[in-house]
């Protein structure tokens, strides 16, 4: 798994990339600093990374559901 950050004056974007078996997943998240907040870049990175990983986790749950459905031959709804 790899997480890359892109930052500008008041925004941070995180891109999380993961390869599992034969699939590649890409999650992203953003954080925006309010003009009233102090400039602490690590906070933006933490928030953006958390959001990217959350996005990624939803994709993984969906991919797992699709694989289970292929084996079971019926819709499934895994808990996430």
Q: How many structural units, i.e. domains?
A: 1
Order of helices and strands: EEEH
Biggest sheet overview: 3 strands, antiparallel
Structural class: alpha+beta
Detailed description of the structure:
- The longest helix is centred in the C-terminal third of the chain and has 32 residues, at 41-72.
- Strand 1 (2-7) and strand 2 form a beta hairpin.
- By secondary structure, the protein is of the alpha+beta class.
- It has a three-stranded antiparallel β-sheet.
- The protein has one helix at 41-72; strands at residues 2-7, 11-20, 23-32.
- It starts with a strand and ends in an 8-residue tail after the last helix.
- It has a single domain, classed as Rv1738 (Double Stranded RNA Binding Domain, 2-Layer Sandwich).
Secondary-structure blueprint:
Layout lengths: L1 E6 L3 E10 L2 E10 L8 H32 L8
Antiparallel strand pairs: 1-2, 2-3
